[in-house]
UniProtKB/TrEMBL annotation:
Function according to Swiss-Prot or TrEMBL: Has an important function as a repair enzyme for proteins that have been inactivated by oxidation. Catalyzes the reversible oxidation-reduction of methionine sulfoxide in proteins to methionine.
Tagged with keyword Acyltransferase: no
Similarity field: Belongs to the MsrA Met sulfoxide reductase family.
Active site: C13
Species this protein is from: Robiginitalea aurantiaca
Pfam families to which the protein is assigned, alphabetical: PMSR (PF01625)
Record-linked Gene3D superfamilies: Peptide methionine sulphoxide reductase MsrA (3.30.1060.10)
Gene expressing this chain: msrA
Upper taxonomic lineage: Bacteria, Pseudomonadati, Bacteroidota, Flavobacteriia, Flavobacteriales
Keywords, comma-separated and alphabetical: Oxidoreductase
InterPro entries (alphabetical): Met_Sox_Rdtase_MsrA_dom, Met_Sox_Rdtase_MsrA_sf
Protein name: Peptide methionine sulfoxide reductase MsrA
Entry's EC annotation: 1.8.4.11
GO MF assignments: peptide-methionine (S)-S-oxide reductase activity
Domain called Peptide methionine sulphoxide reductase MsrA: residue spans: 6-154
Catalytically driven reaction(s): L-methionyl-[protein] + [thioredoxin]-disulfide + H2O = L-methionyl-(S)-S-oxide-[protein] + [thioredoxin]-dithiol; [thioredoxin]-disulfide + L-methionine + H2O = L-methionine (S)-S-oxide + [thioredoxin]-dithiol
Length: 164
């Protein structure tokens, strides 16, 4: 196996995002956690300003950052500000945490593609935020829907067809 890469996305409750991404081709590992907030070592009960995010470890020979973004926009609503389903607040914002200029440019292009598709009503409100630190969530949040198959999620494939 060649070199792996990581991607960092937030699109509402991290449980549902992780569960859908874990089975995608090229995904080698998933971890849920917190990004983009005010405190070090955030917890589920104390993560001011942090988004519930996922860290995706992937094989770039099997999938691309662009393909990950395409799927990201098919499984959450990027037009609701600080909200996914019943979950409200900045923890549930739509965000892409880019690690370099190439990822930022790719994310900007994907946002334009999603908006131009008119599949979603409203404007895409996904924030582009520079990668800082990914803080893994507590063990009870990892693989939550694998352990509790009927647990809460507001994520599902809204569109089967790709944006690109």
């Amino acid at each position: 196996m060649g070199k792996t890469k990581k991607a960092y996305l937030a699109g509402g409750c991290f449980w549902g995002m992780e569960d859908l991404f874990r089975v995608r081709p090229g995904i080698l590992d998933t971890e849920v956690g917190y990004m983009g907030g005010e405190n070090d070592h955030p917890t589920y009960r104390n993560h001011p300003g942090h988004a519930e995010a996922i860290e995706l470890t992937y094989d770039p020979e099997q999938t691309s950052f662009r393909e990950l973004l395409d799927y990201f926009y098919r499984i959450h609503n990027p037009t609701t500000l600080d909200q996914q389903g019943n979950d409200k607040g900045s923890s549930y914002r739509s965000a892409i945490f880019y690690q370099n200029e190439e990822e930022k440019v790719e994310a900007e292009a994907m946002i334009r593609i999603v908006e131009d598709s008119n599949k979603w009503e409203g404007k895409v409100v996904t924030t582009l935020e520079a990668y800082t630190t990914f803080w893994p969530a507590e063990p009870e949040h990892q693989d939550y829907l694998v352990r509790i198959p009927n647990g809460y999620t507001c994520h599902f494939e809204r569109f089967k067809e790709s944006f690109v």
